Amino acid sequence: MKEELKDLVVKLDALNKSVEILIKLTALSIGKDSYFRHKERKDEKIEALNGLDLPDHILALIVGSSPESVRSLRSQMKGKHTRLKEKPTMESASPK
């Protein structure tokens, strides 16, 4: 019985993730024009959609790219964001 319950929980988690993706895609289809306003390049579109936390293969379908390209760009964006956080500012570098 325990194993069946564990299997059911795993299946429900997967179903929940799928439903979340469908909700996000529905919202995106409604507001697609605002997401992509003034964004012509694929990397700009991916950056605009990155906050939705969609899987790479879904973003690739939306912007007309490959999942590998999306994964690579997201990794670069994450690294850039981390470096910007670590960069000292003039204010924090000056003695008080």
Order of helices and strands: HHHHHH
Mean pLDDT, to the nearest integer, reads: 83
The description of the largest β-sheet is: none
Secondary-structure-based class equals: mainly alpha
List low-pLDDT spans: none
What is the end-to-end distance?
Answer: 65 Å
Overall spatial form: extended
How much of the polypeptide forms β-strand, as a percent range?
Answer: under 5%
Helix content: over 70%
The number of helical elements comes to 6
By DSSP, the count of extended strands is 0
Report Rg.
19 Å
The total domain count is: 1
What descriptors fit this protein?
77% helix, mainly alpha, extended, 96 residues, 6 helices, single chain
Can you put this structure into words, describing what you see?
- The chain is extended and about 55 Å long.
- It has helices at 2-30, 32-36, 42-49, 56-63, 67-86, 90-93.
- The termini are far apart.
- Helix 4 packs across helix 5.
- It has one domain.
- Helix content is 77%, strand content 0%.
Blueprint of the fold:
Layout: H1 2-30, H2 32-36, H3 42-49, H4 56-63, H5 67-86, H6 90-93
